[in-house]
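Figure 2 data, in text form.
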Amino acid sequence: SLQGALDSAVLLGANQQDATTRVGIASNAFSGANRGIGGQTVTPNFVTNNDGSFSGTANTNSPTIFMGAFGYSSIPISAKSTAKLLLDNSCVLTLGQGAAVSTSSFVLNGAPNMSLTGCSIRSNTSMTCNGHGGGASASLAAGTTSGCSNPVQGAPAVPDIFSSIASNIVAKCTSITAGGTWTPPIQPVGTAFLTLTNGSYTEVHVCGNLTLSGSGNLNTFSGDLAIVVENGSLTLSNDANITSSNTIIIFSGSTAHNHSINFPNGKGHLATPNVSPPTDTANPWHGISIYYDPHLTSNTDSDLGPGGSLVFDGVAYMPYSNITFHGNTSSGAGQCSKLVANTFTSSGSGTLQFAQGNGACHSLGVQQYSRLFLSQ
C-alpha cells in the first residue's frame, strides 16, 4: 500500500515540467492514495534530482498482530520510488510517412556545419550521414543509423502530436486568385488579402501565392498574428529581410496547388525570414511558427538554398514536406527550434543551427512528445 501510493505520487509529480509544482502535486496525490498504515499519518519526502528525475521516500511503522507476543509491537517499513519524464528534444525530426523503417528519411551529405544546442536529431525510420556525422548529442532512429554521431538505433518512433491542431483552420477564400505581395510595415491590401479577428489574435488569409518583399516586421497588429496561405506558396523576394514576432504562417487548401517556400536562387541574392511563434496560451497556435495542414500530402516540398536563411523559434511543422538544404544555405534559431518534416536532406556545406535552450521551449509553449516511466 505504501509503495503503491508513492509510485502514483512520483509519476504525477514527474509529469510536471515545472519543478516548483511537483512537490505539491505529489504530496496531494500521496495523501489521497495512502490512507495511513495502522491509522498513522505518513509524511513523504520528494526531491527533483540533478538528472531531472523525481524521487520520493516514505517511512513509517507497521503495527504487528502475532509478533506482539514476542515483544515486537511494530516493524519499520519504507518505500522509495523514482520517475522520469523523457521529452523528445529533437531539433530535427523526420516522420518518414508510410516509408519502411529501413528507409533513410534523414540524410546528411557533404560537410554541413551543424551547430546543435541542447537537442538531438531523430528519424522515425533510418538515418544516414555521409561524410559528416552531424555532431548531435544523440542521433536517434527507429531503424538504423549509418555514420551519424552518437547513434541510437531501434529508438521508439515518435507519434505526430501536432496533426490535430489543424481543426483550427477555417478556409475564408471563396475563389482562387493569383495572390499578392506584402511589404512591411504596411499592412496588406487588395482582393487577395482578408483580415479578420479570431478571438485574441488576428488572421490574415492570403488567397493564392504570398510574396514577401522589403524589410520589416509583418506583425503590426495588436497581439498574435496568423497568416493563412490558402492554395498557394510563400516566396521571398531578392534580398528580403522579413521578421514577424508572435506569428504563425499556415499553409492550407488543396493538393492541386503548390505549397512550397521559395528562396532566391543564387546570383548573389539572399533572403531571410525570421519568425517567432505566438505565446498566448489562449491561442491554439501558441508555440508554432510554421504549420502545414496535414491534409496537404503532396506539393509541399521545399528546396532551401542557396540564397536562403530560415530563422525560426518554436515548431516548424511540415509533415509531408521533403526539405532540402544545400549550397550556402543557413538556418538559425535563438531560443527553441523544432523542425518536423517528412524527410530532411542536407547537401553541401550549409550552416545548420538549431537550439533548444534551457527552459525556452517551455516558455514558448512548444509541445514535446513525452514518455513517463518509473525508473526505480
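Caption note: The radius of gyration is 25 Å.
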